[in-house]
Amino acid sequence: MFRNYLKIAIRNLIRNKLYCAINTIGLATGFAACILIMLYVRHELSYDKFWDKAERIGRINTTVLLPGRAPYEAASASTPMKEILETYFPERIVRATRFIPVHPVIIRDGEAFAEDIHLTDPETAQIFDMSVLQGDLQATLNDKASLAISETMAEKYFGTADPVGQVLRIKLSEIDRDYRVGAVFKNLPDNTSLAINGLAKFDLTDFPQTRDLYDTWGNLGEHQVYVETTSPNDFKTISTRLPDLVNTHVVGLDSLKSGPDAKVSDFYIQTIQPITDIHLNPVGIGEMKPAGDMDAVQILVGIAFAVLLIACINFINLVTAKSTQRAREVVLRKVLGANRSQLVTQFAGETILLACLGLLFGLLFVEVSLPSFNRLLNLDLALAYSDSTTLVLIAGLLLVAGLIAGVYPALVVSGFKPAQLLRANRSTEGSGSRLLRNALVVLQFTISTALIVATATVYMQTWFATNKDPGYSKDNVLVLNNTGNEKIAGSREAFKEAILKVPGVHAAGYTDYSPIDIHERLSPFQLVGAKSDQTVLISTQSVDHDYLDTYKIPLLAGRFYSRDFTSDGMPAEGVVGSVVMNKTGAHKLGFTAPQEAIGQRVTTVTAVNAEGPVYGELEIVGITPDFYFQSPKRAIRAEVYLLAPTRYNTLAVKYDGEAQAVVSRLETIWKSFSREVPFQYEFVEDTITAEFERESTISKVLATFSSITVIIACLGLYGLAAFTAERRTREIGIRKVMGARVLDIVRLLVWQFSKPVLIANLMAWPLVVWVMSRWLETFPYRIETWFIWLFCLGAGALSLAIAWATVCVQSTKVARTNPIKALRYE
Questions:
Q1: In angstroms, rounded to a whole number, what is the distance separating the alpha carbons of residues 643 and 647?
Q2: Dihedral sign computed on CA atoms, order 284, 289, 295, 298
Q3: pLDDT tens-digit map of 506-525
Q4: 16: alpha, beta or left, given left = phi > 0 and alpha = psi -120 to 50?
Q5: Which of 237, 315, 753, 818 has the most C-beta neighbours closer than 10 Å?
Q6: pLDDT (tens digit, 9 = 90+) per residue, 10-44?
Q7: Beta pairing, strands 167-172 & 175-185
Q8: Would you say 283 and 74 are in contact if contact means Cβ atoms under 8 Å apart?
């Protein structure tokens, strides 16, 4: 019997080539899209699960709530937290470790290199089971003069030679000594939230002059603290008791309390996050590497389901439409004794056969498109046919598609009644089948239209954010990093003069941060004569006299720092200095208009000595507009611009002409001043664009898969138009005999398929407007909602035009047929 069913199925597929091709291509495309998305989702969900103790490793995050500003959410904690955690939770936490990112200069054979490594604790070797290729990781981290490096770093410095025992000289802040390479560990896999290139032991005694950067609770930096718990169930208990720990041990932050009865835990909030949860649920500031997005994963899962569903809808529509041609076959089988279960088995089997054919072509599509998919997502995904999980998922995909696409058509076709069909001597189709087909077409185009609108919205928001005027000139501006090193800092003005002599360079200005930098240095500011509880924390940035000129930033009121005013800058004791701030900073101090702030004085920390902070007075001499010097994804923060040369670490250069020619000349000048510090630069425009790389990728993915859904939907529409025209051939012939033109017949058939597309648009528009409006609310600066309605109109016109074009091709072909051929059997 099975052999007979198989033979009949193959004959039907060969006989109905168009039907077979449309269904095979649709299912193959649906399978390919699902498999590609499945590979991506599986990769995203696998982050950090490979660690042996993954279920018991967690990270301490910090949220700081300050009046008048958005919460400061960081994937970091102050370094004293390590010891406090181990002593406060002896029964819950086995051990803890820290990762402190540093950017030293490494010297090898007289050549200097800039590297990113982490200072850490010996417990790292016990918490994280890194694959050690050479040496002893535990012994290395116990020695403050030893260094553990990745295999990539080992190859960079030592090639094929044995790196263990070799020496690298490290210059970092107060450290300037030789480090012996004690271990080489395998590069961490891509699916981890950790980005570690080298490890050295953290020893607070190495930083006697900058100790306050590491042993105070107010400095979070990018210091990450990880713990190993005794059980996965301990996370909840630890999280519940963390506020008590904060109130007991966190000191030095009383000035931030809102009142005498307030607790530190009211504004300084510590939480614990499982390591397996970090990638898709990032905290915000200070992640080691770009994180994923659970919303993006859910969107892609939804798209995969939508694409497969549309392919299955095509199959259901075409089978039920085609069923009239197989009605007599079904009736004869029933008359000869076949029961309904046998017929269901036969037609479901044909579906599975077609689904298997679609799966084979789908796998072929995956192999062809996977390299492009990897380039789009910047990943290295692969379809492993030997992996049992992959095979189970593919088999499940086949089974689901077979059930969705095959069960209903099999029940419909097997349910034909012999007496009714033989009495009429023709096949009949119930209104229920026609209604279902129209409903499924509506569903197809609802999904397709929604995806088109979503794609346009994401693209437009990305374009808006990256092209929005930031308030300063970002074009033709590059930033030289590491200008705070002693070689450059010792001859700062001479270096700047040399830069300004380069042909094409128009301006240059020192700062401590480059645009989009995540760092924030808060200082207390209080108007002279104000009450003590009116102190506000404002972010500070160090600039020089040419800062505004370099970035082409105007002034709203007053003036900027000038070399003509000797009092400008941080004051000496007993002297009043000067300060410039942005509009938001002035508003935070209580000024409603920029001009009101000019001439007013504030007190702030102007120096630190052995006895503690030294407070001085500064006169507000200038107010700048608010501009997006930080990430455009965040609201503009209050900012004070200090003339503080000791904090300069970058030099912004405004230029014209060929960028690489300018860079080459700048590098020559750099090396003439300092060969021990590598030349590093970045273009401001590229830095801003990189901020929206994830949104850009999402828009491309949405565009790709929305195009696929539209193509599959149009294939189904073409097939339905073909079968509808075939079923109405005699009607069309009669209409032509009665004088109907080709245009009249085409208009008749086009209108039949225009109605479900129009209904689909009316259903899709309010839903997609609601969803995308919610998404836009995650951006502080966004496009107007009316843009989404405009995209809806465009998507509606596009989907209608595509539907018309699809149906017109088949309708015109049928309408041009000689009516004699249609009526010769009547």
A1: 9
A2: negative
A3: 999 999 877 766 667 778 88
A4: beta
A5: 315
A6: 666 666 676 777 778 888 888 898 899 889 999 99
A7: antiparallel
A8: yes
